[in-house]
Design a protein that fits this description.
The protein is mostly beta strands. The protein is built from two helices and ten strands; from the N terminus they run ββββββαβαβββ. A five-stranded antiparallel β-sheet has the order 1-7-8-9-6, covered by helices on one side. Strands 2, 3, 4, 5 and 10 form a five-stranded antiparallel β-sheet that branches. The longest helix has 8 residues. It is globular, with a radius of gyration of 15 Å. The N and C termini lie far apart (40 Å). The model has no long low-confidence stretch (mean pLDDT 88).
């Protein structure tokens, strides 16, 4: 993807062991975006995910279109892509009147059975895990 990019692991989507049993849902009603999924752990179902703050762009690749780069280090794990060409493109396209206003970071997670989600956002946080029973 990006010859100078470095992936820095932030953490797993959920405490292992987990198995995702239902489709992942990505929603971006404006401003923030959420990535939610249901999964099984130790015989119980849970709902969890991520909230991305001040989203500027996002992209998705179905599992069959992911390259090894999308999977390595990012398998069910949130990573930050440092020295990202994509972020460079977004910053270069920023209007001059807002230049320097946005702090944009490149987040990537590959979710088994779904694909790779990339989000350009200011920050990210884990959503509280809840029982899905």
């Amino acid at each position: 993807m990006n010859s100078t990019a470095v992936k820095r692991v932030i953490g797993p989507l959920s405490p292992p062991p987990s198995a995702y049993t239902e489709d992942v849902v990505f929603s971006h009603p404006g401003g923030d975006a959420e990535l939610r999924c249901r999964y099984e752990r130790n015989g119980s179902m849970y709902v969890g995910g991520l909230r991305f703050r001040r989203v500027r762009a996002y992209r998705f690749r179905a599992e069959g279109h992911c390259t090894p780069w999308h999977i390595e280090d990012a398998y069910d794990t949130l990573v930050e892509v440092e020295q990202s060409e994509w972020i460079g493109e977004l910053l270069a396209a920023e209007p001059s009147e807002t230049w320097g206003h946005w702090k944009i970071r490149h987040f990537l997670i590959y979710i088994d059975g779904a694909g790779a989600y990339e989000v350009a956002a200011e920050d990210v946080e884990w959503l509280p895990e809840a029982s899905a029973s």
